[in-house]
């Protein structure tokens, strides 16, 4: 299928009725707005988060906001929402959530959005003994995809890894993925996003090699700020000062709602091929366009090294052969 970029309207998505998507980190920000956009297009969305109260508030917000628009003429019905507790920094939580998601129905796609955006000033470890930023942003998503790979194979689905334009500013090579030496909050964040992008592109290589009809795409949201985003009770409630500061950056920034556009397109557009990299048209803002990952993140050698590291750290081996048999029927 061929589609020109200018034919894609982020505000009028194709009919997703009958599709079911899992979105990590759905209680706020990009994950929330991606979930809302998918539900408006008719999908059933599994919203996940680690805080039950915030997750319940986010679900209520989606249902409230789509009901308000229910009177608008539509070409397809609205979707529905499920919630699922999932903490990507906790490997036990990842395994439990994946098992629940698999038994709850088909999985057409997974948006790997959850992440630590504001790392701690000093290095911290999870209960599994891993550096918290790398565990949350990269390790947990690697494990989650391995746990739901057979479900994605059954639907010929897709996984979308959320990268960051920060990797183009400070392309740190994660030779020390968990920063046992030389920790800093900025380095922890950027390295985790380099790793996320690398894993997404390496997943594409391995899925192709295994002959699996499962896609792996990387997308980033540009420069998306809460203060540029519509207020949503219980989800996005920036202070007046925060809005003022963020709006001063309006010429280079966009809303979280618009930042979710490339992520959603990467998840649902059938014209996008596995292994592609997507983001806003002007890098920092704009409608979703195909882009280019940095040279470092495209390295097969780095991909193989990080994959092996994640496999050992999580003790999750992706079941490629079993998934291939399921895909073949």
Descriptive account of the structure:
With about 325 residues, this protein is of the alpha/beta class. The chain has one domain (about 10-329): NAD(P)-binding Rossmann-like Domain (Rossmann fold), CATH 3.40.50. It is about 45% helix and about 10% strand. The chain contains ten helices and ten strands. The protein has helices spanning about 30-40, 50-70, 90-105, 130-155, 165-170, 185-210, 240-245, 255-270, 300-315, 320-329; strands at about 20-25, 45-50, 80-85, 110, 160, 215-220, 225, 255, 275-280, 290. The strands form two sheets. Strands 3-2-1-4-5-6-9-10 form an eight-stranded mixed sheet, with helices on both faces. A two-stranded parallel sheet has the order 7-8. The mean pLDDT is about 90.
Class computed from helices, strands and strand pairing: alpha/beta
CATH architecture: 3-Layer(aba) Sandwich
- The termini sit apart by 24 Å
CATH class, named Alpha Beta
Largest sheet: 8 strands, mixed
Q: Please count the beta strands (DSSP E, at least 2 residues each).
A: 10
Uncertain segments: none
Name the helix and strand elements from N-terminus to C-terminus, one letter apiece.
EHEHEHEHEHHEEHEHEEHH
Assign an overall shape: globular
Radius of gyration: 18 Å
CATH superfamily: NAD(P)-binding Rossmann-like Domain
- Give the fraction of residues assigned to helices: 40-55%
Q: Provide the number of structural domains.
A: 1
The side-by-side strand order for the widest beta sheet comes to 3-2-1-4-5-6-9-10
Report strand %: 5-15%
CATH topology: Rossmann fold
